[in-house]
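hey so i finally got around to running the thing on that chain from the lab meeting. sorry it took forever, my laptop kept dying and i had to restart like 3 times. anyway pasting the input first so we r on the same page abt which one it is
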Amino acid sequence: MPILDIHAHYGVWQFPTQARNVDALDTYLQRFGIEKACFSSVEALTCNFVSGNARLFKDIEGHDRFLGYCTVNPNYVDESIAEMKKYMSKSRCFGLKVHSGYSQRPVNSAPMREILNASRRYGKPVLAHTWSPTDCAAIAEAAAEFATLKFIMGHMGGNDWRPALEAVEEILNVFLDPCCSYAERDKIREALDAVGPKRVVFGSDLMLLNPAFVAGMVVGSDLPERDKERILYTNAKEAFGL
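ok and heres what got predicted. didnt touch it at all, straight out
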């Protein structure tokens, strides 16, 4: 079945899966039947979000499989809002990306709230990195405050993922992205049991992980085929208009 990938990365990283340009990445997408993938810039996340965003959107122009995230840094609120003005209205821009681990500013911090408030005019989803119960609580609080925005909980809390399910079970504008290097038994099933079949979406975490690993968590499960198709494709298509 086809796949819509809402969590991928563009650029050079220290992880073993290396693809240094659009053509190399496209071979991964074709190999795994990924119809569209949404990329954030490694440079934007780890170093310079202005130059990283610029390089990403320049390089993916004209490549139908590729969409980009506008990465922001809540340590630089005015500059982040300026970046949103540059990219968020573009059809090639899928949404907003924030990484509280690198910025050291949680999603519910005052600077990030200012950025989220400005992002409401664009109506595009927010992908937030979560790797702890604290991260999960922060995204739950932000999502409850900004109820018109759709949030994607990247990594679904990481290895401590059950508190993520509890945090957002009743917050309907939060979607779970379980990509992680911890393929624990019944992880996907428990996610569906907690939030229902329409709020779990597929992210590969390419290039940190090979798409086969995360797709295998879904395809190799004993879930009904209709639920697998929802996770890999239909939910992202319906919720985000992909």
